[in-house]
Amino acid sequence: MKKKLAAISLGLTLALTISTGSAFANSKLDNAIKPVIGVSYKMGGTTTKGFDCSGFTGYVFKKIGITLPRASTSQYKVGTPVAKKNLKAGDLVFFNTSGRGVSHVGIYVGGGKFAHSSTSRGVTITALNSSYFANKYIGAKRVMSATKYKAVAVDYN
């Protein structure tokens, strides 16, 4: 009986661990985002010495071979619009944090979360429906091809 319980417990633990992990842990996008988590915010920053929001998205996409315009307002003009319910990891997500239109951008990473350069926390992962961002969401754009999406990571715990 103890062996059966131990086997069931181990199986359940493994199943839960596998289901919450990234299905694509070695993807290019994953490899571009994870190393810069925690890099500080810097207005106008585009390097690992500090990023602003569009500097961060530009840096990450450049690492995977996609060139984006420099500013968040310009990034909003590229790609294909995507409904919030159809977001895929790698989509750009846009927010109105200033009251004057697009003023913040991040990268959807799956699970209702996005990576971005926050003025208070630097590069971080935040829930789209967080108390701050939920009502500031403007929309999303898909700038990667379907082929590139197949290798996108979705786990940023």
Mind explaining what this structure looks like?
There is one protein chain. The protein is an alpha+beta fold and 157 residues long. The protein has one domain (24-149): endopeptidase domain like (from Nostoc punctiforme) (endopeptidase fold (from Nostoc punctiforme), Alpha-Beta Complex), CATH 3.90.1720. 28% of the residues lie in helices and 23% in strands. It is built from 5 helices and 8 strands; from the N terminus they run ααββααββββββα. It has helices at 2-20, 28-33, 53-63, 72-75, 146-149; strands spanning 46-47, 50-51, 80-82, 92-95, 104-110, 113-118, 122-127, 137-142. The protein has a 6-stranded antiparallel beta sheet with strand order 3-8-4-5-6-7. A hairpin with a 2-residue loop joins strand 1 (46-47) and strand 2. It is globular. The termini are far apart.
Q: Can you tell me the CATH topology? A: endopeptidase fold (from Nostoc punctiforme)
| Full CATH superfamily name | endopeptidase domain like (from Nostoc punctiforme)
Low-pLDDT runs of 5+ residues are: 1-26, 147-157
CATH architecture: Alpha-Beta Complex
Helix percentage range: 25-40%
Number of separate helices? 5
Structurally, the number of domains stands at: 1
Radius of gyration: 17 Å
Strand count: 8
Q: What structural class do helix, strand and pairing data support?
A: alpha+beta
Please state the average pLDDT score. 82
Largest sheet data:
6 strands, antiparallel
Question: What is the H/E order?
Answer: HHEEHHEEEEEEH
Distance between the termini: 35 Å
Strand content: 15-25%
Which CATH class? Answer: Alpha Beta
Adjacency order of strands in the biggest sheet: 3-8-4-5-6-7
Estimate the global geometry from the Cα principal axes.
Answer: globular
